Structure formats: structure tokens, C-alpha cells
Amino acid sequence: MTTLGLSDNALRVLEARYLRRDSQRRTIETPEQLFQRVAWAVADAADGRVLAGEGLERPWPQASLTKLMLALVVLDAVEEGSCSLGDPVAISRRAQGMGGSQVFLRAGEVFSLEELMRAALVESANDAAMAVAEHVAGSAEAFVARMNRKARHLGMEDTVYASVHGLPPAPGLPDNVSSCRDLIRLARAAIGRPQILAWTALVETPFRGGSLRLHNKNRLVGRVPGVDGLKTGFTRRAGFNLVATASEDGRRLIVVVLGAPDPRVRDAFAVGKFAEFLRLEARGPLAPAAGDLGG
Known about the structure:
single chain; alpha+beta; Beta-lactamase; five-stranded antiparallel sheet; two-stranded antiparallel sheet; 10 helices
């Protein structure tokens, strides 16, 4: 392991694909230098205390980490009684038109709110996120307003939401932005909702009556003992993001990685931090995660 906690395999990925070389093919950038552009944090979930990290307040595009706030706002609405996870949700044309990670919803189809939440959090489906937001708040715009109010309530001072899914915005429009410190606050709130952990701990889940199997974009779930959530995210601007949590012997930690250059490097880095602070190790090599936009 290097000082970054990366395995030899992760280092080979870095060296082969990302480290700059001179005309004689000699490496002129170290992994540590490359990771200076990556923000990360390790925090105690019990009190939010940061145990280690770099770039804690650096604003960064969230990509599909956005869907953790989607889940919090939905469960707030469920608790208030304005909707139920059993509600039938009719798919709109706007939801059908979402790009990136999706479950290919068609306008006029009907799914339960709970089914769509599993699709949004496990498969990172942007079409499901849009359908959920429209059902709960009447429109995506009204739902975004709720997300921003929730962020302020949680003390997320570096965070702004402009969409319900985290897809790249159109030119000239704002992106969903947050920071490691704020995402620790968001993760702690999500961990406090057992339903969110139940969704994000699923390795896979059926959809469309079992005709489709959705696989968790968080490759640490099911491969690293103790890891039971939460969410990944990717866009070209954001790079590969992760908010993960794991528990061992009654202690729970949160690891945040923002802007990693590769999903394998991101995951190996997170595993290294869990190994360092919780003594957790992966069961064999981590499978590469898909790089679907918003995923």
C-alpha cells in the first residue's frame, strides 16, 4: 500500500491511464500528486468528526450523489403523510426523456413509489428520480426547492441543488454542487433513515416484475464486509464520486471521495481508508463500475 492506501492493482491503473510521462516515458507525476486534485474525507458517523481528509470545503459537482438528498426529501414527505411508498406513480413524458443511467421508463407506465426509489438508489436511474420528484412535489422544480431547504436545515453551507438527478446541466445553467464536509452531513442524515440504508445496501433488486435485475453501482456493497451503503456518482465534469459507509464492532464510518479519475481507483482508495480505520478488506478484486452519466 502507498500512503494513499491504494493497492498495487489500483496503482497500475493510475500509471497506465492517468499519470503524465515525459518523452522517454518516465513518470513525471506521482499518485500522490494526482490525488491532490481529489477531495476526500473519513468521518465518524456518530458525531460527524472528520478523522482525515483533503479539500474538505472544495465545491464539487455531485452527479448522482444527488439521489441521497432525493431519498431524504421523499421520506420526509412519507413521514408527513403527503405520500406513501405504496403510491402508484404514473410516468410522464419528461421522466421518459431522461438520459444517462436509467431503467427505460415509458410514459403512461405505472410503478409504486418504492419501486422507483429502488431504481433511483440502486441502478441510479435518472428517469426514476424524475418520476419520483414529480409525484411527490408536483414538479421537478418544486422538488428541487425542497432539496435546497433540506440542505439548509442540515447545515450544508457549500451545497446547491439545481436538478433532482445530478445529470450535467445545459450550457449556462448551474450544476448540483457540494463538498466533502457537507456530504458527511448528508450521509449522517441518510444513515439515520433505516430505509435508505436498506435500499443502498441491496447488491441487486428486481424491477418490472422480475424481468429486469438492477445492480448496485456501489461496487463496495457485497464485496467489502461491513459496507452497507450509500451512493456513487459520475459525470465527465465531476469524475467518479462516492459516499460510502461501513460498520465494524459497533463503530460506523463514512468515506467520501470526490473527483477520482477512475472508478477502480476511487473504490480502491475507499477500501484503503476502511482498512486503515476499521480494518475492513475487500473480498477479492473490485469489479469496475459502469460510467453512465449520473450513475
